[in-house]
Amino acid sequence: MSEQNTSALRVERTGTRAYTGRNDRGAEVRIASAGTPEAFTPGELLKVAVAACSGLSADFSLSRKLGEHFDATIRVSGDPDRENEVYPEIDEVFELDLSELSEVERERLLVSVQRAVDKVCTVGRTLKSGSKVTLSFDVEL
């Protein structure tokens, strides 16, 4: 899952401790402090991003075996370590109905899905590698 044009992404302040994330394709996501209605916290977005990346990475393998219109939910959780201001662990649970498959088919599919996620989920791979994040400023003087 590669980003085509990361410079097109931006986050703009819309109020006290409230921002809106935007891309050039017209998508928007509200980001704010915990408890703000109809908004994600940054930590929630991080967890949603890794779960969505896993789902997108697994989609081809799953649709090939289960058909184009399979149902899937990925539940994601992880509590922050407030002392160190990090999420030490993020847990994903992929919910799928594999009742129509034999035990051997289920095992093969789940191995295939795990390999796909490990290979192409950029968000998960980035978190596992401990990516370097840099901050710079463009200010008017």
From TrEMBL:
Q: Which SUPFAM superfamilies match?
A: OsmC-like
The family database entries (InterPro entries) matched by this protein are listed as: KH_dom-like_a/b, OsmC/Ohr_fam, OsmC/Ohrsf
Q: What is its EC number?
A: 1.11.1.-
Q: Which GO MF terms does the UniProt record name?
A: peroxidase activity
Keyword terms? Oxidoreductase, Peroxidase
Enzyme class (EC, first level): oxidoreductase
Q: Does the keyword Oxidoreductase apply?
A: yes
Q: Where is this region: Disordered?
A: 1-23
Protein name (Swiss-Prot/TrEMBL): OsmC family protein
Upper lineage = Bacteria, Bacillati, Actinomycetota, Actinomycetes, Mycobacteriales
